[in-house]
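Box 3.1 A note on notation
Throughout this textbook, protein chains are presented in two layers. The first layer is the amino acid sequence; the second is a token string describing backbone geometry. Keep the layers aligned when reading.
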Amino acid sequence: MDTLEPPIRALLVEDDERLARFTREYLEEHGVSITHAADGEAGLREGRRGGHDVIILDLLLPRRSGLEVCQALREGSDVPVLMVTARAEEADRVLGLEMGADDYLIKPFSSRELLARIRAMVRRARGQVTSGPRVLRVGPLVLHTGSLRATLGGRELTLTAYEFTLLRVLAERRGRVLTREQLLDLAKGAAEEAFDRSIDVRISRLRQKLEADPKRPRLLKTVRGAGYVLADDEVDP
């Protein structure tokens, strides 16, 4: 059995008992400890209990939908969430990201791909995807790449692992306009299915956390027709 150190603890929220059983067996064979919840209410209860490195969350669940569970969890947790669904439409994926999901996997999927995505998400959340601890400063924004901590004017920011990665990519290239395609490529450590609007959603979520007025951003700016840029001049928090 091949394992990662430390082992991964995952919460699987899936109402299809057969799929849940096969998924659990495969992941546990590869060193992932699984807690299973068969409906949205149970999944939310387990998720709020904590102790998980990643949550694998089906979109269509009895008692409470995956979107509702994800949104509720995001009120008090930044644990990586991988949303799983049979719906392939971009609008559904965008909605999942807006509710706080970090990655999206379309059914049917291979067990190997699921495992690869889980490992990538957990590595990033544990701060294992950078070459070494660094501190990046852009005006009042400070990023600690080793611990995945971010502060703005001394105030701690609550970011998901993907949000931190995206912000790090922008901070490393402060003052430089990056297209959606460049951001998708540079922040692809999650091995997630990439599509242009996912970047727009994530930028919008970051602005809610970074800007005093997200509709008039001073730090994370849009260059119309070109892309996004993190301002390299001094900006008051």
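The radius of gyration is 18 Å. The chain has a mean pLDDT of 84.
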